[in-house]
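hey can u check if this looks right to u? its 210 residues, i copy pasted from the old doc so theres a chance i mangled smth
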Amino acid sequence: MQVSLTDLGKRYNYEWIFRNLTYTFESGTSYAILGHNGSGKSTLLTIIAGHNLASEGALVYTSGGRIVAADNAYRHLSLTAPYLELVEEFTLLEMLGFHTQFKPLRHNLSNLDLIDRMGLQRSKNKFVKDFSSGMKQRLKLGLAIYSNSAMLLLDEPTTNLDQEGVAWYQEHVEQNKQGRLVIVGSNIQHEYSFCEQQLRISDYHVMPRK
């Protein structure tokens, strides 16, 4: 999977978040989008994920040498972020059953296999609404990391995780990054320490006119 950005820009009202962003993300490589809070990391990730539209420029997805229509890009990617919600009325098993109807799991894992890998065996029949914030984040990460998708987008992935949860994230993303395009939006080093490439979103900020 390859994602090519050409002169990409995003603005809200008259304020440009970033502009003139030309960059190519290649499969088999992990990238960190770095910047302070409010710098545009999440905005760029949502544009790449197709949840948001750029104000100018072009974004092209390519898979196996063929262009992927923007409307079909979601089939090739998994996204997790603090602002994305889970279906809290489901039990954990129901949540996985619902999710895997649309995104099968990697390595032919079963739903119970994934529950084991997430360390949530005792909660398989528990309603998601009764999970702690850390359990919900581990579930979001597990669904994203273990979905059979060529592109993995991780926005502030260790939000609400304790030290054990951070170690779990680092272990499982390391085990599942090979052959995929991984993009992490973060300003916390332990979230992106495995990334080979870095893009600083502040390099594409537009200075306000005096």
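The first strand starts at residue 2 and ends at 12.
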